Amino acid sequence: MKKSAKITFYKSELLYEIQNKTYLTGKSRQGDGNFEQVSNMQASEEEEHLNQMLESIGNNFLLLCSKLSDMSPVGIVNNIDSKDIQIDKDGILFFNLSIPSNYNMNLIHSITSICHKFIIYSSVGDWFLITKPDEADRYYIMAKNSLVELREIINKRVCPSRTDPMSVPPSPSPASVPI
After folding, report:
1. Which of 3, 130, 131, 157 is deepest in the core (most CB within 10 A)?
2. What distance in Å separates the CA atoms of residue 132 and residue 118, rounded to the nearest whole number?
3. Residues 156/108, Cβ–Cβ less than 8 Å
4. Residue 112: CB partners within 8 Å, gap ≥ 6?
5. What is the pLDDT of residues 98-113, one digit of tens each?
6. What is the DSSP letter of 80?
7. How far is CA 131 from CA 5, 23, 43, 135, 140, in A?
8. Closest CA to 123 of 67, 45, 172, 60
């Protein structure tokens, strides 16, 4: 028997995090005379920036779905048309995981968090590949590491517990049970 879990991402949150990480990275690299370079590193609300970030989010979401479908033991159902991903900045992205019945459902939050990190790190890497190529590899490495972490979490199971039949206390007789 399989369990199902819906994993949802809000594009507005993803955009905010990409903008925040590019802003903070640029700010930390600020020095004498490199104001224009730092400014170019920082993703903003400009239409061209948003279009690039939405395209990157969409591509990385589809890549994540592909990676998840390769990971045993989960199955993935994604009902999103790839052409629609990049259009709406306020939309959601989601997929349903089909998980074995002995999977610990408490780990779904961890799966969601790691998938979120993968999309963010990959998208920031894509942004820096255009604006500051020497910064891109750092984020691609973090995205790759998040996939390793994801594989570990996905392959966890709840082990069945067995009891020793000799250690189970005998059932009380009906006469000794208080009413």
Report:
1. 131
2. 20
3. no
4. 7, 8
5. 888 888 888 999 999 9
6. -
7. 37, 12, 9, 9, 15
8. 60
